[in-house]
Design a protein that fits this description.
It is a single chain. By secondary structure, this protein is an alpha/beta fold. The protein contains twelve helices and twelve strands. Helix 2 crosses helix 10, helix 3 runs parallel beside helix 4 and helix 7 runs parallel beside helix 8. The protein is globular and about 65 Å long. It binds beta-D-galactopyranose. The site of beta-D-galactopyranose has 12 residues, from loops. It is found in: Cell envelope. GO terms for molecular function: carbohydrate binding. Pfam families: Peripla_BP_4. Its main location: other.
């Protein structure tokens, strides 16, 4: 009874305070009317997938009635840092940040936190800082899928192993996953890794040089190429094609880009990985809205970033090759049949 009274008194007090607060902010819109502002910083638009992330977020934010401010950094670390500062100064409620450089972006996160802004690390993990959420795919699994696929196609022989940009934590995870399948066969003496290099900036022209040089150094005796994404796969296939070898050895990929799907249909690229970035983009906007409203956000695990176990939400990825391409990429509406099969 006594408790109830205290409670009732408290409620009256809170209501009075709320009314009072309402009187003071006469001209300000009621808090529920205020449009939430979400800041997004993307590392690039060079790969098709990042173009899609941007488009998805823009469309979904519109649907949800939130104000979205997107900046794109074109892989430039300094440019991304200043774009994030700019977003912070524009008064964003939450920051969604896909880093061009996992380590360098920690500073941007600290600045956002100092301004009371929660940060979601998007697709790529930001290292050595406090993070509110990490949203991505199961990236080690992506590498495992690539490694499993290529070692089945080429259980023996000379391998060119490429990794993505050293500044991208995903690149480390992709390679780690793939090597779970490749390394045991190297140890057994069945596979020889003749080239093992990272592709700076994920730049296809860098991948082209790596593959051209390796083909020359090995007198074209290469039996498989682990390419970490579709951009680098395209470059590898270009180098193979110049030697009349396109379609003769397995090449992996990732991202389900249109040109990769076309190469799979033509038989020059063996596989790609489907990561439905439409889902990731929407999930990030939903999470950002919750954070902006002061609500908690669900996660399905933790990933350590060197400083903390970051609450993480990881989506599944899937192998795509000529056997399931229509079903996975076309039936899902990710790619159009006419585009994929364009002559
Ligand atoms: C990775 C991303 C991949 C690929 C690559 C190059 O971080 O997970 O999907 O796009 O960057 O941008």
């Amino acid at each position: 009874m006594k408790k109830f009274k205290v409670c009732a008194l408290l409620m009256t007090g809170i209501m009075a305070a709320a009314l009072f607060a309402g009187c003071g902010k006469k001209d300000a819109p009621a808090s529920s009317d205020k449009k939430l502002v979400i800041g997004v910083s993307l590392p690039t638009q060079r790969e098709e997938r990042w173009v899609r992330d941007k488009e998805t977020m823009e469309a979904y934010a519109k649907e949800k009635g939130v104000d979205l401010k997107i900046q794109v950094a074109d892989t430039d670390v300094a440019q991304q840092a200043s774009q994030v500062e700019n977003l912070i100064s524009q008064g964003i409620d939450v920051l969604v940040l896909a880093p061009a450089d996992a380590s360098a972006s920690a500073q941007s996160v600290e600045k956002a936190h100092a301004a009371g802004i929660k940060v979601i690390s998007y697709d790529r993990l930001i290292a050595n800082c406090d993070l509110d959420l990490y949203m991505s795919f199961d990236n080690e699994k992506v590498g495992e899928l690539q490694g499993e696929y290529i070692t089945k196609k080429a259980p023996k022989g000379n391998y060119i192993v490429m990794a993505g940009a050293p500044t991208d934590n995903n690149a480390t995870l992709f390679k780690k996953g793939a090597m779970k399948y490749i390394q045991p066969l190297v140890d057994k003496g069945d596979i020889k890794v003749v080239t093992d290099l990272a592709v700076d900036n994920w730049e296809p022209t860098n991948a082209l040089k790596i593959v051209e040089n390796s083909l020359t150094a090995n007198s074209n005796k290469v039996d498989a190429i682990l390419a970490p994404n579709d951009g680098t796969a395209g470059a590898a296939i270009q180098a193979l094609s110049a030697q009349g070898l396109a379609g003769k050895i397995p090449v992996t990929g990732q991202d389900s880009e249109l040109t990769a799907a076309q190469r799979i249909v033509q038989g020059t690229q063996s596989m790609t990985i489907f990561k439905d970035t439409r889902e990731l983009g929407k999930a990030a906007i939903d999470a950002a809205i919750k954070f902006a409203k002061g609500e908690s956000v669900e996660s399905n695990g933790k990933v350590n970033n060197g400083k903390m176990d970051v609450p993480s939400s990881l989506l599944a990825a899937q192998v795509v090759d000529k056997d399931n391409l229509d079903k996975v990429l076309i039936d899902s509406g990710y790619l159009k049949k006419d585009d994929v099969y364009k002559k």
